[in-house]
Amino acid sequence: MLNSESVRELIALGRKAVEAFLEGKELKVRNYIKSEYSFKRGIFTTLLIYPQKELRGCVGIPYPSYPLWEAVIRTSISSAFEDPRFKPLIRSELSNVIWEISLLGSLEEVKENPEDSIKVGKHGVLVEYGQRKGLLLPQVAVEYTLTSEEFLNRACLKAGLEENLWKREKVKIFRFEADIYREVEPCGEVVKVELI
């Protein structure tokens, strides 16, 4: 079971991965980390500028495809250097960035009344139509004070679809819960984020 201290270890790993990438060095991962976090989970890593908490990058792996330690490394590097909305992170920024990790629960398909089945502050949403997918974490609806309908509209837009497309039959909608942890300050204490 993960808690703030174990997530702090994972965030430290993500930070080291980004540092190693910036220095062009190979990251050495201790065997203890590999065995302790060998289970697979969907995960999103969000980088936020401190202290304003402005988004600096957010990339994730929604399905449990990799051991957790490896998923943290992959999403941390992708958030820092590959989020197309931002320029790659530079060394001088690293000390002013806090890590937020969202550990995803399983995806549950919503077949009826998605606007009632998706609870703001509890669920994230994934909209799927053909090859297009749009995922929003639970904290997005809270941060932007969205209704469940607005949340679904935004997920459609993120997938590159018309905003009301989620009301059509061929669109698949999934909900999920997430455990969210965030550094209080760069390299500082890690706390669980409560949305409600």
Chain-wise SSE layout:
Elements: H1 4-23, H2 31-36, E1 42-49, E2 54-61, H3 68-81, E3 97-104, E4 108-109, H4 114-117, E5 124-129, E6 132-136, H5 138-143, H6 148-158, E7 172-176, E8 178-183, E9 190-192
Antiparallel strand pairs: 1-2, 1-3, 3-8, 4-7, 5-6, 5-7, 8-9
Helix pairs in contact: 1-3
**Approximate helicity band:** 25-40%
CATH superfamily of the largest domain: Hypothetical protein ph0010, domain 1
> Roughly how many Å apart are the termini?
22 Å
Strand content: 25-35%
The topology string of helices and strands comes to HHEEHEEHEEHHEEE
Provide the CATH topology of the largest domain. Glycoprotein, Type 4 Pilin
* Number of extended strands: 9
In terms of structural class, how would the helical and strand content be classed? Answer: alpha+beta
The coarse overall form would be globular
What's the structural domain tally? 2
CATH class group of the largest domain: Alpha Beta
- Could you report the average pLDDT, rounded to the nearest whole number? 95
Sketch the major β-sheet.
Answer: 5 strands, antiparallel
Low-confidence stretches: none
Strand order of the largest sheet: 2-1-3-8-9
